[in-house]
């Protein structure tokens, strides 16, 4: 039972490995978003990119497999097991300063970034405009990034960390400085199958189904009651069940047990909700893991956190979301079923939910990637059709706009409802968002291998 459950978590990596052994196109890496911090890996070009731009690793000789995005840096793991980083992988405070400047003046922020880059290039604070190899590591299988923090999982189950360490989130007890420049192994851990970084804390899942954590815990991040103490070494999270999946949010966490129960803890994960100023519903801190059973007797099989919310996948393929609403900021202490307004482009009865092949946590949203194309469901009335055409904000005919096809979506939680919103992949060599002029063969050639959404930038590995 346990081995079968554990295999589910490795399915995405196994799928990527399988794809690399068959006659599939070579995977390529693309980036978009804010360029100010160098996290796009485009060299001296610090301009923002609204469409995906290709990022070459080792001049194109290394093939990307898995990616991670932090606040101002990125990491890619290649098919050969090497890890590469770029941007500002050790920085946190300077990033916040640049962000404040950018809100006042983009041009001044750009000038400040270029000046600061010249001082920190390659030193302990680390500014790297293009991907560079992370040295002295064994073969790596996955990576998780946060605010100036990088955690790498080796193929044999060891963890390595480096970056910002103010709250001891690197998990290295004998390192007392705020910056850990070079990767060091996190000791005191059994062999692990998964790692995930929150803002200033980290979770790891062992092969035997134990959840361990370290770092800051002033908002219940480590799940063992009210405490201001940080932990510089792994401690066991108090969940007695065998766990098969974990995910870390900003200041909260979630886990799924082998039996299919959901556990949540940390800020905003309590079922006690307070009314603030008669307008905002705010959930308290869940200081210890809270067990939740999905409606209709469904069993949870996977869990994915964004900054303030949780998305759960059930055994029937349905998705459920809980946590803080994206725009209204109201608490949703119980899971809400995610709905979809998209139908299969080939006219079949397939749904987004039974076509999912990959899900990834993100800073703002959880992303959902499918094996087939979907289009927006036809509006039910003429009035709805007019509204839909207006919503496209386009001069194109409504029929063309309605023909846009999507394979990837993000989960939105708002006003007590959860729904899917399509992701834009503009700029990729095979367009994900296509019109009727795109051939079926061209559309069918597109596949997402991995995807990561950081604070202000996104990475996509596609083939």
Helix-strand blueprint:
Blueprint: H1 2-9, H2 11-21, E1 28-33, E2 49-55, E3 64-69, E4 73-78, E5 83-87, H3 93-104, H4 106-120, E6 128-133, E7 140-146, E8 149-154, E9 159-164, E10 179-185, E11 192-197, E12 201-206, E13 211-215, E14 231-236, E15 243-248, E16 252-257, E17 262-266, E18 273-276, E19 280-283, E20 286-292, E21 300-305, E22 309-314, E23 319-324, E24 331-339, E25 342-344, E26 356-360, E27 367-376, H5 382-391, H6 398-402, E28 406-414, E29 417-422, H7 440-444, E30 448-453, E31 457-462
Parallel strand pairs: 24-29
Antiparallel strand pairs: 1-2, 1-31, 3-4, 4-5, 5-6, 7-8, 8-9, 9-10, 11-12, 12-13, 13-14, 15-16, 16-17, 17-20, 18-19, 21-22, 22-23, 23-24, 25-27, 26-27, 27-28, 28-29, 30-31
Helix pairs in contact: 3-4
Percentage of residues in DSSP E strands: 35-45%
Report the major sheet: 9 strands, mixed
Radius of gyration over C-alpha positions, nearest whole angstrom: 22 Å
Helix-and-strand structural type: mainly beta
* Number of H/I helices: 7
**Count of distinct strands:** 31
Unreliable stretches (pLDDT < 50, length at least 5) are 1-22, 391-402, 431-444
Mean pLDDT: 87
- Determine the fraction of residues in helical runs and give it as a percent range: 10-25%
In whole angstroms, the N-to-C terminal distance is 34 Å
